[in-house]
Amino acid sequence: MNGLSNHNSDTNMVHIILIPYMAQGHMIPMADMASLLASSGAVVTFITTPVNAARIRPIIDRIENSHLPVRFVQLPFPSAEAGLPAGCENVDLISSPGLHKPFMEALSIFGEQVKLYLTTKNPTTMPVDCIIFDSKNSWVGAVAESLGIPHIIFYGPSCFYILCSHLLKKYQVLKSIEDDYKLFKVPGLPEPVEVMKAHVMRLMDRPGWEKVSEEFYKTEKSACCVVMNTFEELEMSGLDKFRKEIMKEVWPIGPLSLSNKDLDSMAMRGKACSIDTRLLLSWLDSKAPNSVMFVSFGSLSRNPISQLVQIGQALESASSSQLSFIWVVKEAERSEEVENWLAEFEERTKGRGMVIRGWAPQAVILGHLAVGGFMTHCGWNSTLEAIAGGVVMATWPRFGDQFVNERLVVDVLRIGVAVGAKVPTLFVNEMSEKALVKGEEVRKVVEKVMQGGEEGDERRKRVRELAEKARKAMEEGGSSFENLKRIIQFAKGENKHLERGK
Questions:
Q1: 70 and 35 Cβ atoms separated by less than 8 Å
Q2: Which GO terms describe its molecular function (predicted)?
Q3: Which of 12, 79, 123, 215 counts the most CB atoms within 10 A of its CB?
Q4: Which residues does residue 185 pair with via DSSP β-bridges, in sequence order?
Q5: Residue 306 and residue 24: Cα distance in Å, rounded?
Q6: Domains in the chain, start-ordered, CATH in brackets?
Q7: C-alpha to C-alpha distances, 323 to 232, 253, 316, 341, nearest whole angstrom
């Protein structure tokens, strides 16, 4: 209970519970949020499970060593009760598509553990003033309402994606579209873009997920207000439209990655790094500005070796003589075939390339002046880190919100180039030949992103302007800084009219 007992007698402190969704890309920004709230006058309890706590141990250690009033509570996860393998407590530990639904059912059962914890009389625990929960934890709404606790929904994806999903449901667009790969415009968007049904169809909107979907939308409506990991200056028109649509306060407090100021904090944003950060920085320091392409596809996506070979060929054959690269290849951890191929690839590209097997300090890499491009899956955390670092993106979405984020990056913000992926994938054994992108196409995009010219210079200029706005948003007096203060005010009961979503 690090740091909490010293604050229990302070009546000016508010107690906020954070309940993240159990996926690395959801837990990391919420841990950042915990630090920011604790630095702004709140006592924070971060509820997770033993396996997930172990997976973000570097973050927990850093926060506990800072002596901020944050407590990390580990409650048992009902894997066995839901028919999951032991230890399956995180989305990226799901080994087959058929386990997605049992995982969601386990989350609902986990809600009973959370309710028991919140109702247990403990003299060292402050009363709960507010719960902030990830939108995927739809079970929180019923728990919070049964205990009379105001609750705020946290959306991890971009506002652009959340608004698209809202408008598609509102106008029932998908019901009339039969072709999964036919382009259509999303009605009501401030910046009209074209998407495909295959790219916006959510898992919970599919047959068999009706109960999950019903609970999600019910909780969405019951939440008092909304917190988002974005910033006003990045998505101003979308945020304004979303506020009018849901008629609730929407508080963007990002980019949350910028809450990590020093090198160690940036490096420990996630799991333990698979490379020595200072060795990595020394290598980057030896490279010219904007000469390094960083390639990483997030914590969930995996490439079959056939796709890895194509990416490798693209990086190896890119025409710029100055082009260097850092490539995160998580697949090598579990595949001898991949490891054998990588060893030969590394030998051929010695000096030009660095391969990281496992977890990379992404925020550190993207913040270095040598990095001029980022090939990304368009997960929102990665997209925001690229924007905060002022780095142009080569976009290669895989699933979920990523295809819509690509449209924001490429069509609206105009700070990225699409690799050309069309078929959504999640598990390696689902990646068909149709989903593969040829090395020649990848090479062309790498060169387009890394080389200059009027178009390339304009992209780089735009993303650097956004990087500056992102930094200012998080500084004292900035838009995200002020929104964080509004959350504290709400928890103190200074915005009573917002409670229960009234």
A1: yes
A2: UDP-glucosyltransferase activity
A3: 79
A4: 194
A5: 26
A6: 5-158+224-258+473-501 (3.40.50.2000), 271-471 (3.40.50.2000)
A7: 35, 35, 9, 21
pLDDT in tens, the chain (502 residues): 344 444 444 557 899 999 999 998 899 999 999 999 999 999 999 999 999 999 999 899 999 999 999 999 999 999 999 999 999 999 888 888 888 889 989 999 999 999 999 998 554 568 999 999 999 999 999 999 999 999 999 999 999 999 999 999 999 999 899 999 999 999 999 988 999 999 998 766 777 777 777 888 888 889 999 999 999 999 999 999 999 999 999 999 999 999 987 666 665 655 566 688 889 999 999 999 999 999 999 888 888 899 999 999 999 988 765 689 999 998 877 778 889 999 999 999 998 999 998 888 999 999 999 999 999 999 999 999 999 999 999 999 999 899 999 999 999 999 999 999 999 886 655 666 778 899 999 999 999 999 878 999 999 999 999 999 999 999 999 999 999 999 999 999 876 555 544 4
This prediction has a pTM of 0.92
Strand 14-19 with 353-356, pairing: unpaired
Residues 6+ apart with CB under 8 A from 351: none
Among residues 352, 392, 376, the alpha carbon closest in space to that of 300 is found at: 376
Cβ within 8 Å of residue 327, ≥6 positions away:
295, 296, 311, 312, 315, 353, 354, 355, 356
Contact 446, 317 (CB under 8 A): no
Residues with Cβ < 8 Å from 360, sequence gap 6 or more?
Answer: 273, 274, 275, 296, 326, 328
- In this structure, the chain runs to a length of 502
- β-pair partners for 74: 48
Largest CA distance in the chain: 66
Amino acid (1-letter code) at residue 82: A
